[in-house]
């Protein structure tokens, strides 16, 4: 071996221990950081929207069989979806003799990913009704982000096969009407193609039932892009490590900041930006304006047509439709929302205290002959006058007490309506709707 080769070999032998020591130190530091972080934040953390898979009819569905931990400052919630993709236990499609079935439709409040399954609205209702002596079975088909049309389509394609005696529709006044309108949804997005991620009832075809379908190819492309951004270090690896999850979130934050910077600097039309902000305010708060904007008049007309169709199909299947309101934290604590509603040039004054949107829903359902259980008055009483916390402050959804309170009020109203009857009170017959 010549002198040059010997020098290189010698340097390698001296450097290798240093490299090994460096790599070992990095690995030990990583493991130590992972160990410390797991004490405050569990691995396998996720959010519901990460498990919403594009669907050609509904727009998106929950990933069947998926499981994750929803980390909130107030609690850590284990969330899992059954083999059909619902936040629920498994259910047989065939209804057993003597069983009183209730199907629950709604959005994220009904999906209930912010509380344990046993603390969720539908599980609470099921337990309360069983205590009344009724062999009840609650089936939950709530999905985060759904509007009334998507909920109707879920009933038509999947809910109907369970032959429910009652269909409970949780109506979220704050955004369900907006979700039903392509016109209003377009005000909330920067990229117009994004509104085609959900189906819409064609507003131009008032004399017929025509649905504008989902742009499923575009939805899948956006889903794949979102997955690559949400998990830049790899989905499986990121979700198994708390440290990598935090690093991944930081990368997402930086990417979003850079994207926002270029969007803002490239938009030199201040008037266009002002109009966009005003339109967003309208779409987000217009349902509560004292003077109903024409965009919401059209959106309510669409919503009424969907509710009419849902009522017809539920009754044709031998069931009964009951709508209950899903109060938001801002609606329950009016003062939190008043300034935001009043700040828009579209509103003469904020009408949240007068519940303009809720009054409109009452009027629509009265015309359709659909019973409404309005939870807002009692939510306001409990939160404002008694100071009871019914919402998580972090994600603004009902906490366990909120789900329990809503379930208690709904069961109380169903009992007053005489819609619940035990098998003992109907000799020789299965549990069924009161006449």
Structural features, described:
This protein is an alpha/beta fold. It has one domain (48-425): SGNH hydrolase (Rossmann fold, 3-Layer(aba) Sandwich). Helices cover 48% and strands 11% of the residues. The protein has 16 helices and eleven strands. The chain has helices at residues 3-40, 108-111, 121-131, 148-157, 176-179, 182-185, 216-230, 235-240, 242-266, 270-285, 294-316, 329-332, 334-342, 356-368, 376-385, 400-416; strands at 52-55, 59-62, 67-71, 76-80, 100-105, 136-140, 166-171, 200-201, 211-212, 320-325, 371-373. The chain has a five-stranded parallel beta sheet, with helices on both faces. The chain has a two-stranded antiparallel sheet with strand order 1-2. The protein has a two-stranded antiparallel sheet with strand order 3-4. A hairpin with a 3-residue loop joins strand 1 and strand 2 (59-62). Helix 11 (294-316) runs parallel beside helix 14 (356-368). The protein is globular. Mean pLDDT is 84; it is low at 337-349 and 423-435.
């Amino acid at each position: 071996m010549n002198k040059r080769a010997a020098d290189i070999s010698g340097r390698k032998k001296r450097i290798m221990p240093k490299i090994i020591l460096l790599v070992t130190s990095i690995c030990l530091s990583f493991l130590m950081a992972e160990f410390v972080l797991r004490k405050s934040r569990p691995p396998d953390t996720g959010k519901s929207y990460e498990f919403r898979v594009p669907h050609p009819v509904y727009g998106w569905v929950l990933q069947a069989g998926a499981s994750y931990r929803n980390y909130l400052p107030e609690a850590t919630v284990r969330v899992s979806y059954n083999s059909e993709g619902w936040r629920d236990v498994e259910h047989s499609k065939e209804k057993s003799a003597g069983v009183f079935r209730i199907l629950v439709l709604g959005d994220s409040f009904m999906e209930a990913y912010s509380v344990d399954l046993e603390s969720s609205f539908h599980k609470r209702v099921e337990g309360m009704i069983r205590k009344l002596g009724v062999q009840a079975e609650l089936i939950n088909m709530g999905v985060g982000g759904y509007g009334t049309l998507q909920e109707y389509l879920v009933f038509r394609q999947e809910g109907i096969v369970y032959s429910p005696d009652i269909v409970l529709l949780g109506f979220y006044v704050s955004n369900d009407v907006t979700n039903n309108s392509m016109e209003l949804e377009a005000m909330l997005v920067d990229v117009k193609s994004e509104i085609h991620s959900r189906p819409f009832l064609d507003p131009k075809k008032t004399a017929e039932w025509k649905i504008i379908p989902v742009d499923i190819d575009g939805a899948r492309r956006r889903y794949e892009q979102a997955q690559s951004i949400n998990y830049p270090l790899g989905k499986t690896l990121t979700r198994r490590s708390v440290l990598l999850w935090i690093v991944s979130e930081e990368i997402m934050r930086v990417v979003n900041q850079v994207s926002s910077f270029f969007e803002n600097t490239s938009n030199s039309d201040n008037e266009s930006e002002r109009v966009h902000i005003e339109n967003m305010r309208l779409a987000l708060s217009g349902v509560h304006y004292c003077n109903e904007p024409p965009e919401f008049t059209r959106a309510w007309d669409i919503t009424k047509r969907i509710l009419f169709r849902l009522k017809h199909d539920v009754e044709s299947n031998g069931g009964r439709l009951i709508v209950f309101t899903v109060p938001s934290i801002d609606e329950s604590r009016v003062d939190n929302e008043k300034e935001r509603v009043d700040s828009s040039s579209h509103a003469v004054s904020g009408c949240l205290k007068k519940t303009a949107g809720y009054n409109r829903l009452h009027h629509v359902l009265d015309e359709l002959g659909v019973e409404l259980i309005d939870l807002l008055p009692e939510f306001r009483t409990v939160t404002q006058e008694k100071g009871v916390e019914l919402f998580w402050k972090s994600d603004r959804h009902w906490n366990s007490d909120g789900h329990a309170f809503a379930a208690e009020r709904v069961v109380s109203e169903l009992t007053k309506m005489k819609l619940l009857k035990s098998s003992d009170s109907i000799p020789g017959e299965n549990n069924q709707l009161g006449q």
